[in-house]
Each structure stands twice: as structure tokens, then as C-alpha cells.
User: Fold these one by one.
Assistant:
Number 1:
Amino acid sequence: MHSSDIQALNQKIHEESAVMERLLNETSKVIVGQKYMLERLIIGLLAKGHILLEGMPGLAKTLAINTLSKAIEAKFQRIQFTPDLLPADIVGTMIYNPSSGKFQVRRGPIFSNFILADEINRAPAKVQSALLEAMQERQVTIGDETYPLDEPFLVLATQNPIEQEGTYPLPEAQSDRFMLKAVISYPSKEEERQIIRLNMSGEFENIKKVATINDIIQARKTVREVYMDERIEKYILDIVFATRDPKGNNLPGLADLISYGGSPRASINLALAAKAYAYLQRRGYVIPEDIRAICKDVLRHRIGLTYEAQAENISAEDIIDKILNTVKVP
């Protein structure tokens, strides 16, 4: 790509990304001090990737997703996952109509643009897997018919940490469908003071619609155009391959800690998320810092830990840190 092309792309992104800036500002009126979470939600939206939010109850995960959907002219549905939920409660089912003597399709809440799967790990695997076809193929099968889902289609799932009683860990195949897993932490004292005051006054700002579905679809096209050099591609591959074969990538100390590494989906999603991150920075090209900024969100749920790692209290984040500190930066 010539420098003149990159300059033209930079200019285009600078103009277009103002919509995303408005989206961030609008959601920040209600969500105090969770810029990291809001940015990850928008990156998922731009890169056409589903997002898993993990954190303790009460950290505004549900509120953030609800607020984002209000700021975009899109259909929103919240599904509360519970142990007694059935797959038909999500995708829909066939209902018999006595007057016509035929079965009719009753569509489930999955037929929306934004799906909030609240506390997804409170439902058994059979129900979680009902989301798989929708997430991967962006279609749903009810009876003999297959129905395409509207674009943009985005699943935003929240889960409480696995240690909590009454939760089911997500199957690896489903975890891999989430582009990002963002771990949400507690707010600072000053941020929490603002949250208290906002709730005590009861004066929440009305969220205005600052973006349309067409804005999102156009932004997604532009994100795909963001330039990625071959050296950046090699950097992504070096990172992902280090999770699969630590010994062959100068990380012999990690071999006994990793049970499985990132799939090819990890490489694809790291590239896409890095492009979306660069777009948010109003840049038409990806730099190594973009990869490093988004790497943990893409990989933390794609690295399997051995019993040895768990016994030594070594987390996936610790492993990613060691990989990033060892793999040569272009």
C-alpha cells in the first residue's frame, strides 16, 4: 500500500470515527469509569465479533450493553440465563395453530441486532450451545427451515467468575466463538463516589441515538481496509504459535503450563480486533502497540491451563505477558 493511499485512508477514518467518539461519549454519560469495557464493546461491534464480559455482579455490565444499544438505532433483547432455560426459549419453536391445522414458527428473542446473554454460565451446556449456530453462522434453524439473522448481529454475554456456586464453565468450542473476553474490575474510589451521587440524585441522563445501523455497517467495511503490514502479520502468528508450541518458540518454561493454545480463530480475531483498535485511534494502519493492547482480550479465554499452572496460581494473563515479553516486536 502506497503512503498516499494510507494518508487517504487516515483522512477517511478520521472523519468516520467521529461517530464512534460520539458513541463512547454518549454511553459514558451513564457508565462511569468503565472506559476499557466500553472500548471493548465498540471494538467487538466494529470487528463483527461477539464479546464475553466477566466480572463480579454490580459492575454495570448489563447497563453498559443496554446503554450502547440505546445509542444505536437497533433492536435489543436481553435473555436472562437460568438453570431451567430451554433452547426453544432462545431461538424459538414451532407452535400448532388449531384454526389452520398447521404449525407456525414463533421466533425467539435471538432475532434482534443486540443480544444480551445475561449470566450465560448459569445455564447448562445444552442451552449455551443453542447460541452456537446463531453466533457462528448468523442464522437459526427452527424445524426444517433456516432463518438468517439481521445485521448487525452481536452477542454480548456476561458471566460471573466460575468460582461462584451454581455456574457452568462454557465449553471450549463456545468460548472460542467470542472474539474478546473482557475482565471487568472494580471502579476507583473517586469513580464510585460519582456512581453513588448519580444514583442518589436519580437524575440519569437520557441516552440519545447518535449512530445508525448504516453507520455501523459502513464503519465495519472501513475497518477491513485498515492496512496491516506483513511484519505485523508475522508478529500475530509468532504470538499465537507460541501458545501452541512454547518450546519451539524459546519459551520452554511454559510447556508444562499450557494444555492447549489458540486456534486459527485466535489469529484471525487478533488481526481484526487490532484493525478495529487502530480505527478507534483514528489510524489507517496497525502498529505493534495495537496488537499488545488487545492481545489479552483475544487470547485469555483461548489458552487452556494445566493442573500444574492452576496449582501454582498462574493465570492465562501471566502466560500472555511472558509470551509478549519474549516474542520479538517488529
Note: Residues 264-280 form the longest helix (17 residues).
Number 2:
Amino acid sequence: MLWVAQVLGISLVLTLSPLMWGITQTTKARLQGRRGPSVWLMYWVMKKNWHKETTVPEFSSIIFRLAPSMTLAPLLVVLITIPIAGRVPALWPHNMLTVFFLLALERFWTGLAGLDSAGTFGGMGASRATTLGTGIEPALFAALGIFWEVSRHAAIEPLAPALRTNPASLFPWALASVSLALVLLAEWGRLPVDNPDTHLELTMIHEATLLEYDGRFLALSQWAMTLKITVLATLGWVILGPNLSSLWSNLALRLAEVTVTTVALGLIESRFTKLRFFQIPAYLAAAAGIGILAFYLLAGGLTV
């Protein structure tokens, strides 16, 4: 039964990730006084792109063709490692350090995709994405460090019980949660770090790496973009959220939590403007600083 629940949870995340993207876009539009797109729009866009002819820039290499699949593959592996139902079958891989390195691999291939397109905007987007990655990784590692310090486990499954049974770690845990939330906004490429709805050359980051893509390559990249939000939101709630005794209750709870996250993301994007690019390092430094402070408080015994 545990295998069935885990496979069903993975299938739900894969299937519903474009819907979650649509909920965010619709929520943001409604809060800005616009009707906004349908929540099902991304399904239609991906289907349309999948049936279009796929073209390749003249000076690109095999990297250009591999990049969409190679950005999607690490996210699929991360999804498989998450104990969505609350527990994982025996010998099921679920290591937090593996998640960290897989996310770094996804960013690496996103940068390669922009560079190999041999376009001006692609190179600019790859440069910006790589620069952000140098700030995201230490901030993410600092946030994950506090979870390891509390549980003394690198595996994902023991993290949540350890956090709940150690009340002295409440304040560091709260700081680490704030740090993780700030990092995820940057990892997702959403406001105030990046604006996925613009194609202005002065502001776009992730979108610049996709400008040369079309057809099936673009559909795969769009699926990876929507999947990243759903996968990381699920991971965050598995670590920080409640864990029920029933496998099926956990699946329903995860679905509700991710839906609330996408609505909250639309709320955040309707209330904040994009930071200037040279302000983003300070934002990421603040996220890393909060995580390091939480780790220092817990390691030094200064908990409340």
C-alpha cells in the first residue's frame, strides 16, 4: 500500500504542476483587477508547442537539444525522493544532500541552454542565472543545515518528526523556515527576484535562456518550469508541515498545502515589484544570513 501511495503522489505532482502554475497566474491577475488566464492555460500551451515544428539555431550543438530533458530529469529525480505520503518504502532513496546537488545540476543545464543557443539574450540570461545560483546555493545549504542539526539525519523522512519532538529548536526552526522561503522564491524565478511574465531584455533572467526554443523542446522546458514550483513546494511542506497517520490523508494534505502555496505566490507577486538585479545579491545574502544565524543559535545551545 505504501508503494501505491508513493507512486500516486508522484503521478499527481507530475500531472497537476501546470494547473498549479495556472492558479498562481490567475490569482495574481484577480488581485490586480484583471480577469486573467484560465487555470488550464499551461496545459493548452504545452500541447500546442508539443505539436509544433521544432527548430534548432544554426550554431548550436547537441547541448541545445539535450538541455530541456536534462533540466527536467533532475526535478523528476527530486520528486521521486520526496516521501509525499509521509513515509517511504524500504530502501527508497530520500537524501537531502542529493536534492541539493540535483537542483544545482538543473541550474547548470539551464545556463548551458542559454549559452549554447549562441544568441545575445541567451548568453545574458545564462550569465544572470549563474550569478544568482552562486547566491542561492549557500543560502539553501544554510537553511538545510539547521534541519540536519535538529534531526542529525540527511534523510528527508526523519526531519519532520525530529523538528516536532524538539521544542527547544522552535526559534531556529522558524528562522530556517524564513530562510528557506526566501530561497525558494529565488529558486522558482518569481518576484521579487525574477518576473516570468516579461520578455524585456533588461529584466528577464530565466526566460532569456528559453527564447531560442520552440516546439517540443519548449514544451519540455515549460513543464520543467511548472514542475519546479510544485516539487519544491511539496518538499518544503513534507519537511515543515504536519504529518498525519494515514497515507491517503497525507496525500490530500500535501495537495491542499501546495495549492495554498501557489495562491500565496500569486498574492506575493501582486504586492511586490521586481528588485533591481544588483539588489538581488543582498536579498540572497539576507536569506543565507538568517539560515546561518539559526544554525549558530542551535549549535550554540541558544534556543528559545
Note: Residues 2-299 form one domain.
